[in-house]
Write a structure and sequence with these properties.
mainly alpha, Arc Repressor Mutant, subunit A, Serine Threonine Protein Phosphatase 5, Tetratricopeptide repeat, Rossmann fold, five-stranded parallel β-sheet, 5% strand
């Protein structure tokens, strides 16, 4: 055979092979469908198809002349000898005259009457000859296997060809097996995996190749791919051959799966779903409105806007809440109660809705636009309570939401309608009362069924369990009179019933009769309902002692409730001792003027909004008293916030945060009084500084930045370097989510400079660690290294274990990714310093899990992520739950548990859609693309991977930290599944890049 071409000049007909083009050479490929090339041009085979078999035969047996009888019998075994020889002559003619290029002096085929042979002198490059030559040199095996594009002479199914085809396939498999081993020995796992995959394409039943591929994928960090390799192979064996894998293969699977089996099993167990409503727990039975609930429920399923109107105290809020409770299943994407009672500024109406929905609004973004984007495709019910004092702003907001969000429905409560097009107004009347027609009275059993009477007796039994209503005319008339006199207003009835521990029904009826006669100058006509409620409140208030009245008025300053400790600080003064507050507060609870809630670890008190409005009205009549009370309220919550800020680092972050969440509206009220109303701007600056990070930890980024910026504007008037440093620390945190890198770094560096001047070294170390981490993510590695190194040095000098552990974690995340040993050492020291973190340490555990993952310690990463997730579930912090599930998905993919990864990623995506957060979406889409690829949903996976390229959120740094879970690995699976068709893969990924967020989310949830 002629000398094969050199490897220096490219042959366009050879798919990447190189041949010598100094002279004309006929290039023939027999691996795969036969191909001929001449002068760099692929030849069209002009002879009949059987001529191609003849050509292959002559080429493969080219070493010596062949007798014509041998060739004829091999190609036409069913024909008679004479006929076969005649056919052979005809096809030889086809080859030399039609299929092969014309040559003058050197023919392609030589022979005589007895023999035939491919001409050894003809200029030929043959891939099979090249393959055999390279395969004989163990140093050139990698070149040889590249020539074997497919099995020999695909499309030719002659009997003579099969042994040669099998022989060459075995030779290719033997070469690939050696290359797998040699590449693995060199540490080139990527190349070894490629060879193993090619080996399995040639022989899909080779279990040694399956085991090699499993081991290689595990060693390269792709445990999910290793386990999926086994599962796919095992399934094929059962379906096609009805056998199980070899014991050796099954044992390898067990060894790979064993380290994380327990952890992933616990992650896959049933867990509470995310709560998609915030309706309060009912503490008392709801009486007298059962039919109204059903009617209102049916109306809300039919109409998009229903406004429940009625006088104060008639029960609008309770009816709205109880109706919404029956609709939770009908609105799977959320039923949300938004209470406007604490909102003093009408401009804050949209912000209040966004806060309740947990929406992450970026500074500078219109809040209504944020809400509209989040709810545009959501079947959601909003219950907007107490709209009357912000009516115009509420109407504008509702109109915008109805226009932008076609699946949103709204149930509003107000003392007057919103006056919007399409609004259905339902006026809530008082409870039905007994009829008194002359001397005729209903029986006691009949009276008990009247809604107003039923409510009165039920609430009276709460304070007077031994109450017995006598079945005589006077007692029945007194009972009917009480309920009629109170006009069936639930709040008035409950106030009156609270006195039944001291009065009989007859005595109560007489006192009410006297009270109302006095108010109207002796007239016995029925009073308007609002006047009735006011008269009832006045009557209840007049029955209080002077000290009870004073405390009742002062309690009105609280927004959304208070603790006993808060009441003692705010309501006591020189006239009322702090020690007396508990007794006075308990008396107000007994009289139903204050409600106590005991579902938490300690009692919390609140007023119904009607009561609070009444208390504030009385407080406002004495302006100095109101200002003194507001000042005590602001000072108390300043001390509360500063104490919480001082404990930062001495207890787990969530434990320091937990007491602050319920007081958020009180903090807002104090900030509004001190900063917005400018009643005490110095106090406001201190309060904003102390609360700097609190709003961010509650995912209220825009509000937190707004208060910090407002406080910084007052710094010039009330200079305080400590406050300024804390405010810039908070702004650095907020800018990390919403500003440019330069703005973020400017805030962080300003905080660093101020903490240096102040000597606040623990806080300095904290900010330096985060600053270094931020610098690392924007590829300023030298600066990042200096910042985190200094943070570690400072923290060690200070000796604060919490801060040392914190900065060590961020140091571990910023050092070179190849320094696995160093990362693990820093991780182990952090764990030792933090010690037994407990159930409130979700933040710290999540940081540890991230470091463990970066340090290739998958077991601890999974365990800590799981524990962090459990803590956030207890608090129902939806954004944090989503973040934890992103981590769980990443770690589970690396662990090989595709099902857990899928469930975690799906929940993270559902939550992200619900709170309008796109921070984690790129990662979630990437992980679900991986799951889809492993499950054989190749085209969906390719599109999702493309979508993950463009759905970037603010936390792009997470993509790099989680890269171990494998964007590149997913891409490799797709390339393999699409047989290397780069054009199709590129097209599919481009389609995904063109998707909107909603399109990408909908497709991802189908995985």
């Amino acid at each position: 055979m002629p000398q094969q071409g050199k490897s220096g000049s490219f042959d366009p007909c050879s798919n990447g092979r190189h041949v010598d083009q100094s002279s004309q050479v006929l290039q023939i490929r027999l691996f795969g469908p036969p191909q001929l090339c001449w002068n760099d041009v692929r030849l069209r085979f002009g002879a009949p198809p059987r001529a191609l078999s003849l050509l292959a035969y002559l080429l493969l047996y080219r070493a010596q002349p062949l007798t014509r009888e041998t060739v004829a019998f091999a190609l036409w075994p069913d024909e008679a000898e004479a006929a076969a020889r005649s056919t052979l002559r005809r096809y030889v003619y086809y080859l030399v005259s039609r299929a092969l290029p014309a040559r003058g002096e050197t023919p392609w085929i030589v022979g005589d009457k007895r023999t035939l042979q491919w001409n050894p002198a003809a200029p030929l490059w043959l891939d099979v000859a090249e393959f055999e030559s390279l395969a004989s040199d163990e140093n050139r095996a990698a070149e040889a296997v590249e020539l074997y594009m497919a099995d020999l002479a695909e499309g030719i199914d002659d009997e003579w060809l099969r042994p040669l085809r099998d022989q060459l396939r075995e030779q290719q498999c033997a070469l690939l097996t050696k290359l797998v081993d040699s590449s693995r020995a060199r540490g080139d796992r990527r190349r070894a995996i490629e060879y193993a995959l090619r080996l399995l394409r040639h022989d899909p039943w080779r279990e040694d190749a399956v085991r090699a591929l499993m081991a290689l994928r595990q060693e390269s960090g792709d445990r999910a791919g290793a386990l999926q390799t086994y599962r796919d192979f095992s399934k094929r064996l059962r379906v096609e051959l009805e056998v199980e894998p070899m014991t050796e293969t099954a044992e390898l699977y067990g060894r790979i799966a064993e380290p994380v089996a327990e952890l992933t099993a616990s992650l896959a167990t049933a867990r509470p779903s995310v709560v998609w409503h915030n309706l309060p727990m009912a503490f008392t039975s709801f009486l007298g409105r059962e039919r109204k609930i059903e009617a209102l429920r049916a109306l809300l399923l039919e109409r998009r806007l229903v406004t429940l109107t009625g006088t104060g105290g008639v029960g609008k809020t309770r009816l709205a809440v109880e109706t919404a409770r029956t609709l939770i299943e009908s609105f799977p994407e959320g039923v949300w109660l938004v209470e406007f009672a604490p909102v003093a500024d009408p401009e804050m109406v949209p912000a209040r809705i966004a806060a309740v929905l947990g929406l992450e609004q970026s500074p500078g973004t219109a809040i209504l636009e944020t809400i509209g984007t989040a709810l545009r495709e959501r079947a959601t019910l909003l219950v907007l309570d107490n709209c009357e004092h912000v009516l115009d702003a509420a109407a504008v907001t509702v109109a915008r939401l109805l226009a932008d969000c076609p699946q949103v429905r709204i149930l509003a409560t107000s003392r007057e309608p919103l006056h919007l097009s399409g609004e259905r107004v339902e006026r809530l009347e008082s409870l039905a009362v007994p009829q008194i027609d002359g001397e005729a009275l209903a029986s006691l059993e009949e009276l008990r069924e009247v809604p107003a009477v039923k409510l009165f007796l039920n609430r009276a039994a709460d304070v007077a369990p031994s109450l017995v209503v006598r079945d005589d005319g006077d007692e029945r008339r007194a009972l009917a009179t009480v309920c009629r006199r109170l006009d069936g207003i639930p709040l008035a009835i409950e106030l009156a019933a609270s006195r039944m521990s001291l009065l009989t029904i007859s005595a109560l009826a007489e006192r009410l009769e006297n009270r109302f006669r006095l108010l109207v100058g002796g007239s016995r006509t029925v009073l308007p309902r609002q006047q009735t409620l006011r008269a009832t409140l006045d009557w209840s208030f007049d029955l209080l002692s002077v000290r009870e009245r004073t405390v009742f008025g002062r309690l009105g300053i609280f927004v959304a409730g208070w603790t006993l400790e808060a009441a003692q600080h705010v309501c006591s003064d020189a006239l009322i001792a702090e020690a007396d507050i508990f007794e006075l507060l308990s008396s107000l609870v007994d009289k139903s003027l204050v409600v106590v809630q005991t579902e938490g670890t300690r009692p919390r008190y609140r007023m119904l909004e009607t009561m609070r409005a009444y208390a504030l009205e009385g407080l406002a009549e004495h302006s100095r008293e109101r200002e003194r009370t507001a000042s005590r309220h602001a000072h108390y919550f300043l001390a509360f916030a500063e104490h919480a800020d001082a404990t930062f680092g001495s207890v787990p972050i969530l434990r320091s945060l937990a007491p602050l969440g319920p007081e958020l509206d009180n903090f807002r009220a104090a900030l509004g009084w001190s900063l917005a109303e400018r009643c005490d701007t110095e106090l406001g600056v201190r309060l904003a500084a102390a609360l700097g990070l609190v709003f961010g930890r509650l995912a209220l980024y825009a509000e937190g930045e707004r208060w910090c910026s407002r406080a910084l504007a007052e710094i010039a008037e009330h200079p305080s370097a400590a406050c300024e440093a804390d405010l810039y620390r908070a702004l650095f945190f907020y800018a990390y989510f919403s500003r440019t890198p330069d703005e973020m770094l400017a805030a962080g560096r300003r905080a660093v400079d101020l903490y240096r001047e102040l000597g606040e070294r623990s806080k300095l170390a904290y900010v330096l660690a985060l600053l270094g981490f931020a610098l690392h993510q924007i590829k300023r590695t030298d600066e990042a290294d200096r910042a985190t190194a200094e943070a570690v040095a400072i923290a060690r000098e200070e000796g604060d274990h919490w801060h040392i552990a914190f900065v060590l974690c961020y140091r571990a995340l910023t050092i070179d990714s190849t320094e696995i040993g160093a990362r693990r050492a820093l991780l182990d020291e952090s764990v030792r310093l933090w010690g037994n973190l407990g159930e409130d340490a979700s933040v710290e555990l999540l940081i540890l899990s991230l470091v463990a993952f970066a340090a290739d310690d998958l077991l601890r990463a999974l365990r800590w992520a799981r524990e962090s997730l459990a803590g956030y579930r207890r608090l129902n912090f939806r954004g944090a739950i989503a973040m934890c599930q992103v981590y769980v998905a990443a770690y589970s993919l690396a662990a090989g548990d595709v099902d857990v990864a899928r469930n975690a990623a799906r929940e993270a995506l559902v939550i992200a859609r619900g709170v309008n957060s796109t921070k984690f979406v790129p990662l979630v889409l990437q992980y679900l693309a991986r799951v889809a690829a492993l499950r054989g949903q190749i085209r969906r996976a390719a599109r999702l991977l493309g979508a993950s390229d463009v759905q970037h959120g603010a936390l792009g740094w997470m993509h790099e930290l989680h890269e171990q879970s494998g964007y590149a690995q997913t891409l490799a699976i797709l390339r393999e599944a699409l047989s290397g068709d780069q054009e199709e893969l590129a097209t599919l990924m481009a389609e995904g890049r063109a998707w909107s967020f909603e399109q990408a989310a909908e497709e991802a949830l189908l995985v």
